[in-house]
Amino acid sequence: MKTKITTVLIIVTLISISAYSQNVVNLKIKGSDTVLPLSQKEAETFMKKNKSAKITVTGGGSGVGIAAFVDGSTDIAMASRKMKMSEKLKLQDAGKAYKEVVIANDALSVIVNPANKVSQLTREQIEGIFTGKIKNWKEVGGDDEKIVVYSRESSSGTYEFFKEHVLNNKNYGTSILMMPATGAMVQSVSQTKGAIGYIGFAYMEKNVKALKISYDKGKTFIEPNVINAKNKTYPVVRPLYYYYLTKDAAKVKTFIDYILSEEGQKVVNEVGYISLK
């Protein structure tokens, strides 16, 4: 009888340990520099409420995060663009099914130096500047000064989204300067009078100026802000994504549920992005 009781206790203990292990959140998140500050803040607030949770968040760009996701070295890929067909095929070839979740929205913003008197541009003018056809600010109503164009690197989801949705899939000009991270772009534009670049809205700082943008050939110019993004009048709003493997759904559920909760979406607003609700 004593042996049976001992056996039952061991089984119950093992089941309890297994259940506890499944509930402990231990995640690696990697990818988009745009999503990085949001994921860091969400992880920080989540771990304050869940002392046993361990979440590590690193950037590098959407392409880097999805590559890590494909090779299995991260649990969640964060991306500021949708997954490409080539990336989907790699997962398919590896027999890995995945899920896509939108965790927030971003008002992608075109920025210049505050000393620049130009405050608004049409989409066509932006395309001309970033493809190299417009080279001087006087061509768009500014001073007689060379335009210094900054872009994110090609591994960045923001680079891809900007090319597709703002440049109408035209190629970037050959003279643009590539920045390894969004913070570096903000710093460079703030220090160069003739500079122009583009950033996620949460990176907006007082030492750069966001331009109003027109997508109706100059009839209306819309400022990037939370109100204009939510009422969909600002034309360059994009979703921010998490990708995870279907087999890991239980592993990531608690954290993703938290981000999508009222509390998690409040963090989205605090960081400077656009909440889903």
Uncertain segments: 8-21
* Global geometry: globular
User: In terms of structural class, how would the helical and strand content be classed?
Assistant: alpha/beta
What is the CA-based Rg, rounded? 22 Å
Number of helix segments?
Answer: 10
Counting DSSP E segments of at least 2 residues, the number of strands comes to: 12
Average residue-wise pLDDT: 92
What is the string of helix and strand elements? HEHEHEHEEEHEHEHEEEHEHH
Largest sheet: 5 strands, mixed
First-to-last CA distance: 58 Å
Helix content: 25-40%
Strand content: 15-25%
Identify the strand order in the major beta sheet: 2-1-3-12-4
Report on the architecture of this protein.
- The strands form three sheets. Strands 2-1-3-12-4 form a five-stranded mixed β-sheet. The chain has a five-stranded mixed β-sheet with strand order 8-7-9-5-10. Strands 6-11 form a two-stranded parallel ribbon.
- The termini are far apart.
- By secondary structure, the protein is α/β, with parallel strands linked by helices.
- The protein has ten helices and twelve strands.
- Strand 7 (148-152), helix 6 and strand 8 form a beta-alpha-beta unit.
